[in-house]
Amino acid sequence: MVFVSSTIGKGESPMKMGLSTFGLDSLNSLIFNMHEFDLIKHYFTWTPVPSEVRLSVGDDAAILQIPPHEEFIISVDTLVEGVHFPVATPAHAVGYKALAVNLSDLAAMGAHPRWFTLALTLPAVNQTWLEEFTRGLRELATEHQIFLIGGDTTRGPLSITIQVMGTAPKHQALLRQGAQVGDLILVSGNLGEAAAGLAVIQQRLNLAHEDAADCIQRLNYPSPRVELGCWLRDYATSCMDVSDGLVADLKHLLKRSQVGAKLYHQNIPLSGALHKLNLSTALGLALTGGDDYELLFTLPQQHLEQLKQYQIVNQIKLSVIGEITQQIEQVSLDYPLVNLPDGYNHFQ
């Protein structure tokens, strides 16, 4: 559907519309009489429209033209306030992250981003919040040249659902299956910073002010590795993104590929902030903390030189953290952590 349904702005009392959850500073920032279609036109009707979009916002559905010799790749994620981002998260960060986590899924498939839809549930129509949310959303969309083609708006607890669509050459998309015994295991960037940022917000971890700010920034503004994912199509044997924690996500890859993994703790990439923590705490955050949205992939050793050249040219941190083994679905670590849970699970 292309922004066709809403129950926002029916004149209910501000308290019933969840203003405290929505983070309003004053009732003056609430627009009671803004019609849904005015909201859509102002915030979510984007121009210029790409040539491959035959029909976009304003009708019952969008019409797209898929490039020849490419496959259509689709992913969807929902972000709920208080679950996927803390209640006080700035609107700009919410908009940015909502798209970033979906772009990360396309990156993990080696897909080129093209279009997305947005289903937005709001407790109230707040112009200031919407301006900042849209700005964060559009900044990242512009960077990755992905275009908003439609969606839905409704009233309720704050949540954002984005469906991203991308393309990749036929039969060349990256998959979780395909890792071979002897392949190297690699990750992009640093691990554990986002989990540390969340722990700081929840007052479970104390960091120096600058380190805390850096970790919270990583929590709010993940970097989808789209360009890396497209490059890896020619080299990686398997790939996925790290969203629920390295160990948990690695186990998904191992299950699909029917292999095992040996990890080297000294190779796990840690930021300066995490290096200041004791090793067990830092490794716990890096191995089981979620929200990294880095790429986890396997690579035959003969492609390591090409990878090093890519790393130098693109100035991206890529770390060999282990090796694929024959022990199906088993992860071994050369460091004795007392407790190594799998990672985040929405239903536990």
Automatic annotation (TrEMBL):
A GO MF label: ATP binding
Domain PurM-like N-terminal, first and last residues per copy: 58-167
GO BP: any one term: thiamine biosynthetic process
Protein's UniProt keywords contain Flavoprotein: no
Record function comment: Catalyzes the ATP-dependent phosphorylation of thiamine-monophosphate (TMP) to form thiamine-pyrophosphate (TPP), the active form of vitamin B1.
Name the UniProt record assigns to this protein: Thiamine-monophosphate kinase
UniProt cross-references to InterPro entries, sorted A to Z: PurM-like_C_dom, PurM-like_C_sf, PurM-like_N, PurM-like_N_sf, ThiL-like
Chain residues that bind Mg(2+) 5: D244
Record-listed substrate binding positions: H84, D291, Y344
Organism from which the protein derives: Thiothrix eikelboomii
Amino-acid positions noted as binding Mg(2+) 1 in the UniProt annotation, renumbered to this chain: D77, D152
Residues that, per the record, bind ATP: G151, D152, R176, S243
Keyword Ribonucleoprotein part of the UniProt annotation: no
Gene designation per UniProt: thiL
Binding site residues for Mg(2+) 2: D77, D105
Domain PurM-like C-terminal, first and last residues per copy: 180-327
Enzyme class, first EC level, given as a word: transferase
Annotated binding of Mg(2+) 3, by residue: D60, D105, D241
Matches recorded under CDD domains: ThiL (cd02194)
Family assignment from sequence similarity: Belongs to the thiamine-monophosphate kinase family.
NCBIfam families, sorted: thiL
